[in-house]
Write a structure and sequence with these properties.
There is one protein chain. By secondary structure, the chain is an alpha+beta fold. It has 3 domains: 59 residues; 56 residues, 2-Layer Sandwich (Wheat Germ Agglutinin (Isolectin 2), domain 1), CATH 3.30.60; 160 residues, SPRY domain (Jelly Rolls, Sandwich), CATH 2.60.120.920. It is 35% helix and 24% strand. The chain contains 5 helices and 19 strands. It has a 7-stranded antiparallel β-sheet with strand order 7-8-19-10-15-16-17, with no helix packed on it. A hairpin with a 6-residue loop joins strand 3 and strand 4. The longest helix has 101 residues.
């Protein structure tokens, strides 16, 4: 069953406003406006919408500009702060530079003052030195004491090639290298042991007093000779039969030495020939020094050398052989005593210390210096007197 509602019932529920009320007029106005053309309603709606959008867009632009201005203002404040800090740093640097300049002027004044003091000390030292020299001239030579011990005297213009310091005291000069020197401290380190070193106690020590630390050459030795290691100074004949067995030294006679010299001590001698002398490389190792090939010179155990007969070599005898480089005169000694070799001269060839053994079991020991039974200094003094 459908329930119907009559108009009268409706009006009773929702009574209409009176014609004089605002609601009634508003309703009528709205109704009249609605009764107008539909086109006018659409135009008004579009106009209102566009005005609203325009106002919103303008507000957005204003906010964006304000944000940009705020960022610019912040960046400017940051830059200003940084510049203020930099200005403070510059001021601090200026103050530091001013302090340094003041200190520099003070130091310069101190240096000038010290320079004047040094000049005064030098003048006083020079005056004192002149007085000392005059006093020394008035003294006798035997009354003049040495100013410094030998181990404190410097070698002029000589520098150690290892520590690069001036050589003071003992100087060691290499006989192989053209210009190599060591001080005593560096020589003890054993950094240059492969080459013989020349020992100079002072700058005035003549070269003739210093001999190279030579030894017998293992590679220039007869295969039936035995060399005692590691010094290679003791030599023994180990062949089963008699025969000449020869050995040469490692280094040639140095031209730098005023007098070259070495000695040989006869440890075991069974009666065979034994030759001690100098020889060139042309001498074969199965030949005897002094008797074969050119440029060989020897003093024999039978007491002969170059046709001169002298007393021979027995057990325990020390035989020396040397060469005066200035006169090319050969030198022979026996137990430290010089033998007469006034007419014995050698040719200017490259020579080596050389020894020949002939009897199995013979043993000798070489001494290449610097301490010998023979007084080399005395030999040099004699040579100087003969000039």
């Amino acid at each position: 069953m459908v329930k119907t509602t009559t108009l009268s019932q409706t009006r009773q529920k929702d009574p209409l406003p009176s014609p004089n009320s605002a609601a009634c007029f508003g309703f009528l106005d709205i109704k009249n406006e609605n009764e107008s053309t539909d086109g006018d309603v659409d135009v008004n709606d579009q106009t209102n919408s566009s005005m609203t959008n325009g106002i919103g867009a303008q507000d957005g632009n204003d906010h964006s500009e304000m944000a940009s201005d705020a960022r610019s203002s912040y960046n400017l404040r940051v830059k200003i702060t940084q510049m203020e800090r930099q200005l403070k740093d510059v001021d601090q640097l200026k103050n530091n530079l001013s302090k340094l300049a003041t200190e520099n002027r003070a130091l310069h004044a101190e240096v000038v003052k010290l320079g004047h003091l040094v000049d005064g000390v030098r003048e006083n030292g020079s005056h004192q030195q002149r007085q000392n020299e005059s006093n020394v001239e008035q003294k006798k030579p035997d009354e003049i004491p040495s100013k410094l011990p030998d181990d404190k005297l410097p070698h002029p213009d000589i520098w150690c090639d290892l520590c690069e310091k001036r050589v003071v005291g003992v100087r060691y000069k290499c006989f192989v290298c053209p210009d190599f020197d060591l001080c005593e401290q560096c020589e003890k380190t054993g950094t240059h042991v492969k080459h013989p070193m020349c020992r100079l106690a002072t700058a005035d020590t003549p070269m003739f007093m210093v001999q190279p630390s030579n030894r017998w050459n293992f590679n220039d030795c007869h295969q039936e000779l035995f060399l005692d290691q590691p010094n290679f100074l003791i030599l023994q004949h180990r062949a089963l039969e008699k025969g000449f067995r020869t050995v040469r030294a490692e280094l040639a006679v140095p031209n730098e030495s005023g007098i070259f010299y070495y000695e040989v001590k006869i440890e075991v001698h069974r009666g065979g020939f034994l030759g001690i002398g100098l020889a060139s490389k042309s001498l074969r190792l199965d030949k005897c020094v002094g008797q074969h090939a050119n440029n060989t010179y020897a003093y024999g155990s039978d007491g002969t050398f170059w046709g001169h007969n002298v007393k021979g070599c027995e057990l325990g005898i020390v035989v020396g052989c040397g060469l005066n480089m200035a006169t090319r005169q050969i030198i022979y000694t026996r137990n430290g005593q010089r033998l007469d070799t006034a007419e014995l001269f050698v040719s200017p060839s490259k020579l080596y210390a050389c020894v020949t053994l002939s009897e199995p079991g013979d043993v000798i020991e070489a001494n290449f210096g610097p301490k010998f039974k023979f007084n080399i200094a005395e030999e040099f003094e004699v040579a100087e007197l003969r000039k």
